[in-house]
Every structure is written in structure tokens, then in C-alpha cells.
Amino acid sequence: MDAILLIAVLATAPAAFIWLGGSGQGPLPVGSPQPSALVENGSPSPSPSPSPSPSAPARTPPQDRLGTWSPLSSMPRSLWGPGAAILADGRMMVIGGASAASSSAALAAVEIFDPRLEAWAVGAPMLEARAYPTTAVLPDGSVLVAGGSRAGLPLASAERYLPDTSRWVPAGTMNAPRSHATATVLQDGRVLVAGGGSEGSPSYASTATAEIYDPATGTWRTTASMASARAWHTATLLPDGDVLVTGGADTYHGTRGKVTASAEIYDPVAAAWHSAKSMSVARYHQAAAPLGDGRVLVAGGWALTSNSDRSLATAAIYDPVSDTWTATGAMAAGRASGSMVALPDGRALIVGGVDATYRVMDTAEIWDGASGHWQPTGPLPAAVMDPALAVLDDGRAVVAGGALDAVAGHLTSASAILSPPAP
Length: 423
Fold this sequence. Notes:
four-stranded antiparallel beta sheet, mainly beta, Neuraminidase, 32% strand, disordered N terminus
């Protein structure tokens, strides 16, 4: 039956990817992986015959390239959908993910990139394997990892990496299992974890619940629930300490769910949510980044969970002072399940993802606030979906791993580094 369903879905493209939806960050998911297509039946779906090869990458014309990606040594493992974190000493951690399309292939593995040596090393593995872990760097430099997916089920467990001893320790258990949730470090050092997929087959339902991890006590407690159940949403810390949550869907897997355009804001002082102005279009699998002036950029994603939806090229900016959304320049191509980070100079970088014709992309673009436009960088070393992406302390960006096709039939261990030129 799985083989028949997969063949049928592939025939409908572009949202076969959604039917295969898995369990992050986002961006996996970067403290959270922001994040996409793990098979949630606990085992990989068989591929149609002949086996699919990586889809032809969607490329950007060569003009107006903004920086070049320089290849780095490969990671020890090929993987996709991991978490990512920058340690206090400047090294980059790539955490968990999956070594195949199924969350049965979830990894406990950790890879560590040292920018001084420009080399990867194997780190201490997590206590549990996790596909699409939700991650956050705590004020003391330790790394919190919570939830994720394994064998088709969301996880409730959490653990914490202690850099001084290079080891993982238990960090309690969340009050609800969550995959594709968001984790946001609040100004007081606590962590807000919101939404995510909370049930396995057959409902694959998202949750509206939220909870807070207190690193001082190592405990989790529930807080007020959002107005809408969400997975594959984004969460961004605002300058006043509140948290903006945008978009998402009420299921995290399959085509039965509904995507929302709504946005909500969590007030940690009042421990309450209030509504924010809705986006002009529903989005999930989108990307978000905080801007230097306190606003939030949201770009791409899908508006529907149907098998005929096309990824969005549009982008919009939320102003928390006026509670308004303003359209900004559109990307060169539709892009969903890409990874986006804020650059130190106030610009934003988005890489990879799935374009409007369901091809995995080898392109990256930088949004410039001065012009409101996106400009392409040079091509990535591979077309990737759901790679790890992080900005080093020196302002360079590292991309690593990812799926080479929209059903995660082929993965990569390749990595590259970008030195964005000044605006």
C-alpha cells in the first residue's frame, strides 16, 4: 500500500513532499531547525521503479552573484533535517537528523565544524536519536535539544549538551511530545517551546500547547496555549522580549491539514498570547529571520497542503510597533523548506529548498533591507533541502548536509562556506 500511495503522490508533484512530511527549526530549523519530508510510518516508503535520482537543481542566472560558496571538507555522515547551534567557542554543531527518508533512520550523531581548522569532527552523540530536533543555545553556552521524531512518532524527551565536559545529560520531559515545534530563548534565559506535531498516525495532529524550560531548575512547565494549533511555523524573539509566531499547519504530515496565515505574540511577563495581524497569505514550511531594526522577515513556504500547490516566492516584513505586514521584494523563485538566517549586518540569507516546479534548489539569495530586494549568491555545491545552516562569529555562513531530492531518496555530506561581501 505504501508503494502504491507513493507512486500516486509522485505523479501529482509538487506537494508529494508534503505527503511525506516528517518531524524542527526550523530552522530546523537557526536554533531551531527550522525544517521537512521524513516518512512518518516508521520505515522508508519504497521508491518507484526505476529509483528516483536527484532532481535537476533550479539555478539562478550567473549575473549579479553576491558572494561565492567555497567548498569545505565533507561531514562524516550524509544526513538531512538536523538541528544546528553555534557554541561559545565559535564552533558549529550539526545535531541529529536522519540518514534516510524515514524517521526510523533518525540519528543521535553530532558533527562539529571548527572554523579555525575548517574541518569537521565527530562529536559526542546524543542520548537519543532524533530526526528534526528542536534546539536552542542557552545563556550558559549549553545546548538544549527537545522533541523531534523517531520511528514515526513525536518525542517528548529533552537533553542538554555541556560543552565544558563534551557530554549530554537528560533535561527532563516535555508535557507533550512535539515534532516541528519551535524553541525560542527568552530574555530571562528560559526557553519557550510552542506547537509542533503531537500525534502519530492516523491524525498527525499539531498542537496549540506551549511550555517553558527553566535551565536553572531543569524543569518544564506548561504555559498558555496558542489560539491555533501549528507545526512547520516560525517563532522569532522581538526586541521587547515577546515572541512572534507565524503561519504553520494544523497537521504536520499529509495533505489533510489546513495552513494558516495567522500570527500570534507570546508575552512572557503575562504568560499569555495575543493575536497579531495576519499575513496576507497562509504559509508553512516558510522561513523567518529577525532584522536589525526589530522587524521580522518571513519568506517562501507553501500556502496549501494539497498535491498541487506551488512554493511561494513572496516575502513580507512584520513591524511589531505598528502590528502591520508590508510586502517586500519577491525572491527569484518560489522556495519552501529552505533554511534562512539573519546576517550580522542586518541582511538575511536563504539557501536551498524546493522551488515551484518541485525541484530541489542549488541557489541562495540575500535580502537587502536598503533596497528591499533579493540578490543571488553563487551556486551551492549541491541542490539541497533542509540543510543545516548557521552564521559563524566572524559573519561567514556555513551550509551542511541536506536532501538532494524532494523525497529524501538521496542525501549529502557536502558543506560550504560563504563570506558575504559588504552591502
